[in-house]
Specification:
The complex is a heterotrimer. Chain A is an all-alpha fold. Chain A is 77% helix and 0% strand. In chain A, helix 5 crosses helix 7 and helix 7 runs antiparallel to helix 10. Chain B is mainly α. Chain B is built from 13 helices and 2 strands. In chain B, helix 3 crosses helix 13 and helix 4 packs antiparallel against helix 10. Helix content of chain C is 48%, strand content 12%. The relative contact order of chain C is 0.16. The chains are: A mainly alpha, B mainly alpha, C alpha/beta. Chains in contact: A-B, A-C, B-C. Chains A and C meet through helix 4, helix 6, helix 11, helix 12 and helix 13 of A and helix 1, helix 3 and helix 9 of C.
């Protein structure tokens, strides 16, 4: 009995190990080929030869004119932060009211928001152009932030409401007895208790914003002079996808920071995702 | 005594009205505060999500090239008629359906399988989970470019096969191969998310329940069939909806991996909308295509939710 | 302990995430200032295609003398979509259209959004101005012309295969393909993306234009369909794929990889436009000699046939431009200044009467082909008043051409393009 258990466990471990390898091969190729010239990439893509490895191509990619990597990071980080500020900023008060009010109207509003979770955001980008054009925000950073934030609102509001409902009502009732206003109660008493769910929402929104390609592509456009990591990668790799000395280093530069952040924070990212999903 | 009562009454009687007046005022103010707290969220949501959806419905009934100098011309359901008459767009819709259905099936199958294998929390499994999940933090655009460099006619895999004296595999140059390559890449990149969901779902199954079934002599399959799977129901619902809807709007990976080709064999509906109809200045047609996608997403979501509800009711009655 | 360190690290990472944001807000303000500050001559936004030959650096250098002379700031913008053709309509809809657009031609829909330049004195003398005029109005001006129907070939490969003379009829062409294959070369190099449809059209221009002059107009007045025009070529092409003269997986190949294959010496023939001359020059000394010939024609037709030609580096000015005057000045500079013309002709293999810029052997050969062609004819969508009645012809034609690789019959391909024209005209 124990023997079969060990065997099945060994089988399991070797199977999972093999799969892990399969998952990591593209990453391996990405890394080793970022340090080779076109000829050695084409002739021996899997080879790792430290003697001939050169950082030249990475440096070239870093200094690329079409896509300044640090600038791309700056814009993308700015987006992540601004979208979260807007999204959490508008959702926390709304969720607080909806969670605490017995009014049927607010329950209806919640349903109205939940319906928004099913809207495939990239396919409404064309009408979004007309809305943003009307507001004079087309091709601007605030326009992009607003649209991206609106796409995160349904989910954020939904999980916030669920979370606040679980918080004891006595807390804010005590505060209002002391004469505190609702906004004060929210930001000073309720919001600090929401830390775990805010972290979850932040992480999920950050991943979504970081990886979005269609929205910045359409909304920022060429005129704004702004680009994110994804649209920058597209600009520098899309036209030259046969020049592997450009493709691999650029892709590597685009993924390294986000991978590092992920590895350092993997516990939070993955548990946050799980929490968000089970609450949702 | 009577005078006293009278005076007290006289004293009292004007008081209640003022009290209700004041409380009315307070109530109005409270309601106003409530509305002002909900308003920003509603404004952002309605302004940039609901209004665009309504716009999409409106434009889908018009002929319009999108230029500010032109005005949309109302044409009724012409755009929809065109979609259903065009073999090309119909093909695109079928393809999108296949990607969404097969993709989400495979994603969920792989995720559930891995979740069962990596269920226990130990170092090795934690490492495994991280490795399975990491592609999700990369954008699909980058993933597509990376795989194109690996699987293209002169990519890493075909170079290796040449060295070994074998012929090229047409990963991206044969319509069927390209489609399944794309689905494969999507599964590779996306199943980690669903894996995390299933792992979380597995943790909610009470250990006593499994133990009891084991004592009853259930084998592994029976255990899964009668305890684990029913308990994972809600998780599976969420996982299937989210993966299905996210695959319905597949766009980035088409752009970077196949460019919709060869011969339009990997053109999804989202790609058709953003990279074909829109640049061809057919706002009406593009909007009609968007409307169909929105409806498909809604139907998918509500069907799965309804099935789930029915299953729950069935479970309760048993 | 362990937990504490991870936490600290996490905070550090978060902090690192915030710092760039602060920097962003800090450095974004001066940049907007300089945008509105440098208003000596204002700013002109120009949308251009970025390619292997025409890089961002190239464009900046090209407009530098103009900027120095006029004080007008020229902002070069690359497309956010696949090409200018995909990005420009998006920008028109978004209300963010650039002042000057390079690489596109006007059509019925875009013409009202563009400036009619026919009133400007300098327009008349620019190349192909009349060919591209719509009802006498010049919405586009160009630097030169590009030959669009050329077959580049590897002279060493031809010698090795025992071919002594370039083919002038389709039968001879087939024979050449066969000999090249026997000798172990890729007989005809193709590629994916836009290239598949482009090459097929380029090979067919001379024959097609002998049989149906101004075939685009014939499609518009419904006396001909695109399918009828192209089916004979589809048949040839499909046969070549079947016989292994064209690699089946080339349809997944990147166009620059196809360039590299030809330059690498593995390829016998490579149909492409005159801009490939610039690529050859850039590649430096090759171990073999490159020759060029005009595509074959049917037996009994005069060889060489009409040469497909397009306006090289065309420019259009957006009607809604806030800086119309400066935009016109820029375009005038680009198409009339001698240095600018030379730079542009050299960079993208263009030709213009009076400018002898193509000094490479291949370049001179192309010049000879252009000189000996009985006429220059417009290609693809068409030009000026001789246009197809549909927008987006080239991407769709490419999709149809690719279907020949993936098992569609020539008849299917012809039906499919006709169906599309019918649905969209």
């Amino acid at each position: 009995m124990r023997k079969t258990a060990t065997i099945s466990n060994a089988l399991r471990i070797s199977f999972v190990g093999l799969l892990c390898l399969a998952m990591l091969v593209p990453m391996y190729l990405l890394i080793v080929n970022s340090f080779k010239d076109q000829q050695s990439i084409l002739s021996a893509p899997f080879e790792l030869n430290l003697a001939t490895a050169t950082p030249d191509f990475l440096i070239q990619a870093w200094n690329s004119r079409e896509f300044s990597v640090p600038f791309g990071y700056l814009i993308t980080c700015g987006l992540v932060i601004c979208v979260n500020i807007v999204s959490i900023g508008v959702c926390a008060p709304a969720a607080y009211v909806i969670a605490r009010s017995p009014k049927a109207l607010f329950r209806a509003i919640l349903l109205f928001f939940i319906a928004g979770m099913f809207i495939p955001t990239q396919v409404i980008l064309i009408p979004v152009i007309f809305v943003l054009r009307g507001l004079g925000l087309m091709g601007t950073f605030p326009g992009l932030v607003l649209f991206m934030a609106s796409a995160t609102v349904p989910f954020t509001l939904f999980v916030f409401t669920g979370f606040i409902r679980l918080l004891p009502k006595a807390l804010d009732e005590a505060a209002s007895m002391d004469g505190a206003g609702r906004l004060y109660t929210l930001w000073r008493i309720v919001f600090p208790l929401m830390k775990p769910i805010v972290a979850t929402v932040f992480i999920l929104n950050a991943l979504g914003v970081w990886n979005d390609f269609a929205s910045p592509q359409v909304i920022l456009g060429p005129g704004s002079g702004l680009y994110t990591v994804t649209t920058g990668v597209y600009a520098s790799v899309g036209q030259y996808s046969a020049d592997y000395t450009k493709v691999f280093p650029t892709l590597l530069l685009a993924v390294v920071p986000i991978l590092l952040i992920f590895i350092l924070m993997q516990r939070y990212v993955m548990s946050g995702l799980a929490a968000g999903a089970t609450k949702g | 005594m009577t005078t006293e009562t009278r005076t007290s009454r006289a004293e009292l009687s004007p008081k209640p009205p003022t009290k209700t007046k004041r409380s009315n005022k307070a109530k109005t103010r409270a309601v106003l505060t409530e509305f002002s707290m909900v308003a920003p969220a509603v404004l952002v949501y309605v302004g940039l999500l609901v209004v665009p959806v309504l716009f999409a419905f409106y434009y889908s009934l018009t002929d319009y090239n999108g230029f500010p100098s032109q005005t949309p011309k109302f044409v009724g359901f012409k755009n929809f008629e065109r979609i259903f008459e065009s073999a090309d767009v119909k093909g695109t819709m079928v393809l999108t359906g296949i990607v969404a259905a097969v993709g989400s099936l495979l994603v969920n199958f792989a995720a559930l399988g891995m979740a069962l294998l990596l269920q226990k929390t130990n170092r090795f499994n934690t490492f495994g989970r991280v490795v399975m999940f990491y592609p999700h933090v990369l954008s699909m655009l980058v993933v597509g470019f990376l795989w194109a460099a690996i699987l293209g006619p002169q990519g890493a895999v075909n170079t290796l096969r040449e060295v070994l004296g074998q012929g090229d595999l047409p990963f991206l140059s044969d319509p069927l191969w390209a489609l399944w390559t794309m689905v494969g890449v999507i599964v590779w990149a996306q199943f980690g998310v669903q894996l995390v969901l299933y792992l979380a779902g597995l943790q909610t199954i009470p250990a006593e329940l499994l133990e009891a079934a084991r004592i009853d002599g259930a084998n592994k399959w029976q255990l899964f069939r009668s305890v684990t799977w029913p308990a994972l129901g809600p998780t599976a619902t969420v996982a299937i909806i989210t993966s299905g809807i996210s695959l319905l709007k597949t766009y980035d990976v088409v752009v970077s991996l196949t460019g919709g080709g060869p011969a339009g064999s990997t053109k999804t509906l989202a790609y058709e909308i953003l990279s074909v109809s829109f640049p061809e200045r057919r706002i009406g047609l593009a909007s009609a295509e968007s409307v169909l996608l929105i409806i498909a997403a809604a139907i998918l979501a509500f069907t799965v939710l309804a099935l789930r509800k029915k299953a729950d009711e069935g479970a309760e009655s048993v | 302990m362990m937990f504490a360190t991870t936490r600290r690290r996490a905070t550090a990472v978060l902090a690192a995430g915030t710092v760039p944001f602060l920097l962003l807000t800090a450095c974004s303000s001066p940049s907007t200032d300089s945008g509105s500050g440098a208003t000596a001559g204002g700013e002109v936004r120009m949308l251009v295609n970025l390619t292997d030959n025409l890089t961002q650096d190239y464009w900046n250098k090209l407009v530098k003398p103009f900027e120095d002379k006029t004080g007008i700031d020229v902002k070069i913008e690359g497309p956010t979509g696949k090409s200018v053709a995909e990005t420009f309509p998006t920008q028109l809809a978004a209300g963010t259209a650039p002042d000057v657009i390079q690489s596109l031609f006007p059509d019925q829909q875009t013409a009202p959004e563009l400036v009619d330049l026919s009133g400007e004195g300098w327009v008349k003398d620019t190349p192909m101005a009349d060919t591209y005029a719509m009802e006498g109005k010049n919405y586009v001006v160009g630097v030169g012309s590009q030959a669009q129907s050329l077959v580049y070939y590897n002279k060493s490969a031809f010698a090795a295969a025992g071919i002594t003379k370039t083919p002038e009829t389709w039968d001879e062409f087939n024979e050449t393909l066969q000999k090249l294959k026997t000798a172990g070369f890729t007989p005809l190099q193709s590629a994916g993306q836009f290239m598949t449809g482009l090459q097929l059209q380029q090979l067919w221009h001379p024959t097609l234009n002998i049989e149906h002059p101004k075939w685009q107009s014939s499609v518009t007045d419904e006396s001909l369909t695109v399918g009828q025009a192209y089916q004979p070529m589809f048949e040839k092409y499909s046969k070549w794929i079947e016989d292994g003269y064209i690699a089946k997986d080339a349809v997944g190949l990147d166009p620059s990889a196809a360039d590299a294959n030809f330059i690498g010496g593995k390829v016998g023939m490579y149909p492409l436009g005159s801009w490939f001359v610039a690529t050859l020059v850039k590649a430096g000394n090759l171990p073999f000699e490159v020759g060029v010939f005009s595509p074959p024609v049917d037996k009994g037709q005069d060889y060489p046939g009409p040469q497909g030609a397009t306006m090289a580096t065309p420019y259009m000015v957006y009607q809604g431009s806030k800086n119309l005057d400066a935009s016109k000045q820029l375009v005038q500079y680009l198409v009339t200044d001698e240095t600018a013309i030379k730079t542009q002709l050299t960079a993208d293999g263009g030709f213009r009467a009076g400018y002898d810029v193509q000094t490479s052997d291949a370049g001179k050969d192309v010049q000879k082909i252009v000189d000996s062609a009985p006429s220059l004819v417009s290609v693809g969508q068409g030009a000026g008043d001789n246009q197809l009645p549909v927008a987006g012809f080239n991407p769709r034609f490419t999709q149809v051409a690719q279907s020949l690789f993936t098992g569609a019959s020539p008849q299917d391909a012809a039906n499919s393009i006709d169906q599309w024209v019918k649905e969209n005209r």
